[in-house]
Amino acid sequence: MELNKTIQNFKEQQKKMHAFDHVMNLLTYDAATGMPPGASDTLSDTLAVMSGESYRLTVSEEYKAMLKVLNEHKEELDFQTRREAEELLEEQEKLAKVPEEEVVAAAKAQNEANHYWEIAKNKNDYELFKPYLAKLIEIQKRYAGYINPDGDVYDTLLNEFEKGMTQKQMDPFFDDIKEKLVPLIAAVQKSSDKPDTSFLSGTFPIEKQKELSAYVMDLMGIDKERCILRETEHPFTTEFSKNDVRITTKYKEDDLTSNLYSVIHESGHAMYELCVSDDLLHSALGHGATTAIHESQSRLWENYIGRSKAFCQLIFPKVKELFPEQMEGVIAEDFYRAVNVARPSLIRTEADELTYSLHVLIRYEMEKKIFNEGLSVDDLPAEWNRLYKEYLGVDVPDDTQGILQDAHWAGGAFGYFPSYALGTAYSAQIMKYLKEVVDLEKCCFEGDFAPVREWLTDRIYKHGMLLTAEELIENTCHEKFDPNYYTKYLTDKFTRLYRL
Prior knowledge:
- The protein is mainly α.
- Helix content is 65%, strand content 3%.
- It has 20 helices and 3 strands.
- The radius of gyration is 23 Å and the shape is globular.
- It is an enzyme of class 3 (hydrolase).
């Protein structure tokens, strides 16, 4: 009877903690999509107060005792409650090592940095953002020192986004990508059989692009009663619960595919959250398992489905209907080849499939240098530019298109970037097994992706955080993670596209 009461209190505590997260995330979402610039300082103060209250709730003696009791009796708990108790005890013990003033300072610093990052990006003024970035780096170093004083700082930060991820694991993963993809990229650049992309340049009215966004969301099966699309400087998805998921995009009048594939990508993230089991509503486990597993789903929809020939044939009539002048004389095959063009570029979020992971590698190497070698914020732009020249052969013309292009560091998310490449590799392996069961070409021909959603929901989406990334991959693919699926997929696809 006493244990049942503790379980009931534990479930209520999770609802309360979810409510705090809901409010803080809603404020952050509003800051990115609609808040007047002058409100930033007030928001920083509000987030500081809210983060302090959330911190005290998490480290309270009552909550600590509750978790201790549940973990002592975990064999008597149902699977979900046991996993919640295990996960939240780990989180509670970690946060309890961090002083409250550090948690509050981090929340305030992240809001300030986000605000000045956006201004700096629009003004091409890295110097404006630099002091806020320096503050966040020091905060992250202290945070890592609190929660893992004897550990490697960067490994500690990597673990925050992908549990168990270390440089020892990621270094050979990226080395393999470099070894196999750099020569392939060079061969593609030398190919004389390049697609015509001229019809993707021009003027594409934003109102028409919005119609296209709504069309692809409907095609994918996004429930617009529970998911909305808004505009922001840097596209992202945020979820307050499975019944309230927000995705964002950035429209560019001179670039059709930027928004198109941004919306498909973010809708892939949204699909995951919308299909989490109802049993996990308000649970601490009621969202995606890890950042890399989440990224595997956005990249699966964006690239493995969205850039496939069958999908391009499906959506091209709509593209032509909305943009008849721009698409005059263009056929679906032309569109397919154009949206799969492979060429080194400046912007990670708009990079092609073949070069994408090199953009991530550059950020990974820079983060290692920041936390392992003390690379100064003064030297970050020059190092960024050097690596882009070395790995992608492109000259970075300004900081807006260089070091200021991503929002992640402004949010203190050091250690996040590697999960993008890892998730993209996960999706290649997942896709191989999905196609053994689901006739994807038939789904595209009929414009019905219910079989895809149902298969992914059964194997990944519905589980939320109940299963680890390793368990999800093994349950879905019947084998451990194998990055060779990723490099083989890219080699096969681009050898065929460029007739190498």
